Amino acid sequence: MTDAGEPTGPGTPKHLWIVGILALLWDGMGAFDFVMTQTENERYLAAFTPEQREFFRFPWLIDFAWGVAVWGGVLGSVLLLARKRPAVKVFGLSLAAVIVTTVHNFGLSNGLEVLGGAGLAFMVVIIGVAAALLAYSRAMARAGVLT
Q1: CB 3.0–4.6 Å: which of 14, 35, 68, 119 could bond 97 by disulfide?
Q2: Residue 100 lies in a domain
């Protein structure tokens, strides 16, 4: 900061706003899905088969990991938009948690049978987005954009 209170680091690149807002929307959809599923919202769950509804009754530890994944993504997005360096760690935690839930759902459970190949493909996309957000936030931290 200068004596006038102005930041001395690089300005906020326009792409940070674009990535941050898109990330917040993406992670917000995940948080909405989490809340609707956890509260067993009948209207929301009407689109699920009985097998899928039963499948989403995870053990508490997997529910916890899922919550860390989605709410970590939301918090990471907010921190990114606020240009805060902790976004990197939060996105890293979110990625780790989504990997844990994916291993459980498709490696230790019958997720492929219940959700099919499309469910697995969507989880791969989720992991890819989480990894990309982690990489992006690291790049912004290295560039001095995140403080």
Answers
A1: 68
A2: yes
- The pLDDT confidence band at residue 30, using thresholds 50, 70 and 90, is very high
| Domain count across the chain | 1
* Residue in the block written with tokens 């530890």: 61
Q: Are 134 and 95 in contact (CB under 8 A)?
A: yes
Residues near 29 by beta carbon (within 8 Å), at least 6 away in sequence? none
Residue located via tokens 């989605």: 70
Give the tens place of pLDDT for each residue, 104-119: 999 999 999 999 999 9
CB 101 within 8 A of CB 65: yes
How far the first Cα of the chain sits from its last, in Å, is 12
DSSP collapsed to 3 states, 118-134: HHHHHHHHHHHHHHHHH
Q: What's the half-sphere exposure (Cβ side, CA atoms, 13 Å) at 41?
A: 10
Question: 0.85 exceeded by the pTM?
Answer: yes
